[in-house]
Amino acid sequence: MGGNHTQVEFILLGITDSPRVQTLLFVLFLLIYIVTLVGNFGIIILVRVSPSLHTPMYFFLTHLAFTDICYSTVISPRMLADLLAEDKTISFSGCMMQFLAFAFFATIECHLLAMMAYDRHVAICHPLLYVTITSSRVCWQLIASSYLLAFLSAIISMWCVFGGYFCGPNRIDHFFCDVVPVLKLVCSDTHINEMVIFALFTINIVGASVIILLSYISIIRTVLKTCSAQSRARAFHTCASHLMTVSMYFGTTFFMYLQPPSSHGSLDKVASIFYTVVNPMLNPLIYSLRNNEVKEALVRCGRRFLNRWQH
């Protein structure tokens, strides 16, 4: 790292100091983490074994599920351990690596949600060109570009957060190493660092939001021109699950990272819990419970499994 630091470790203050509440939260978050792993691994396996789901939309969905697994695993195991442990210290390098992984997978999630919105835009607005525009090669190029850009963005963000001079307090008022609480501990001037982080946030999260917004404006305009009410209902139902995911993820991230530094308070932890712990659990549930194609594929897989087991 380019910066200097005297701290060799930090202390994560966590969500609460109450032992009783910590125990309850441990049980709750453990169940959420298990559901997250089962649900997202289930989506990946279901798409792989179901030929009817071998389409660009579900290709992106499997990568979203993989990202949610990694994204949640970066945060949840450490948070669960801290809820039961008295020693909540984390090394400087451990904190740095946690932030790097968090920033990496969070950025990929933004890109994937934008890709899925564009996929729905092409499918509904340009159905005759859908196979050409969203070919397998194009999909893999988009995924590879996303991973590369997310990695570069995460590296730069990590340098901006941890490249300063840490000389004083080492208590992070959060349950993981996030931008705002860590930058509060930096003794040197962080104005330029904050500007760079804000620029990266604008490029990745706001940029993805604009793509999603434009895609759905185009979808709504196209659907409203459709004469058949049944076709309108089918098109809106197809997009409903994606819109729910987008609203939950971007709503909490905008609340967390677009408010002025002086406005950050206790609600930050609630918002962070939502997009780091709860959202990865809800994504597979939303796509399975609100998506007829996924439900039908699940039923077919269940029947095949029962037939093999009976024979």
Strand order, main sheet: write it out. Answer: 2-1-3
Fraction of residues in helix: over 70%
What is the number of E strands?
3
The largest β sheet comes out as: 3 strands, mixed
Give the oligomer, counting copies of the same chain as homo and different chains as hetero.
single chain
Number of helices: 10
Along the chain, the helix and strand elements come as EHHEHHHEHHHHH
Uncertain residue ranges: none
Mean pLDDT: 86
> Whole-Å distance between the termini?
61 Å
What percent strand?
under 5%
Shape: globular
Which structural class should the secondary elements be placed in? mainly alpha
Rg from C-alpha positions? Answer: 21 Å
